[in-house]
Amino acid sequence: MAISEWYTNYILKHRIYYRTLRLPPEDSEIGDPISLCLEIEDLPGIETSFINDQFVNRYFNMARRELFIPPGTKDIVPFKIWKPPKIPLAAGQKYLPLTQGRMGFVFVCDINDLDSIKAVELLYQKFQSTTELSISSIKPVVFLCANKVDRDTETKNFELNLFRIEDFASRMFVRLWKTSALTGKNVKHMFRDILYLINSNSALWQIDLRYVSESSDSDEDNKDILSQCINI
Predict the structure, then answer these.
(1) InterPro entries, from UniProt (predicted)?
(2) FRET partner for 42 with CA separation of 20 to 30 A, picked from 71, 109, 169, 211?
């Protein structure tokens, strides 16, 4: 299969989920919960041979989208200033999430599949290289996730694979979660933890408004007077 054909098929398998929730205060039962609206991108598994520059630039780009709002705007209604997301249903259609500049990543591998583990290791290393070279000071929250820890736990391959991903996480100084999508083990705990970390780093999600002066000496300049909003 040609890379372009594979890439088109890969894009078609994307899923975007939205969920609203109220996050309890961290490590406390006192205080008001935090209301959040989440956009979650679910990307299918990927073979190491297809982790190229095109893939890296598309998904690990931390650039923020600039939105322009007419001067005099006093209130920004959530979602009103963003374009609706696009999910491809056929070849040639565009894929576009609601937001830009992802705030958190969870790299998931099948602990019983060595190729899956190798792909996650390569993905994480590519991600690290990209963010280190980026001029942006915004760093997303990143977890590794070893899934299916409830299967074949007595086999030698399971023990070797688990040791490998634990050693990798230790060397990379990244948090590793051991989960089971079947039983739900640690899944809610992992997502709750990443939400707390994202929420505590306002640089990841806060809207930065920079207003341009409305006073100008020429009509030509007046046409370009806009309040600039950066969606981060």
Answers:
(1) P-loop_NTPase, Small_GTPase
(2) 169
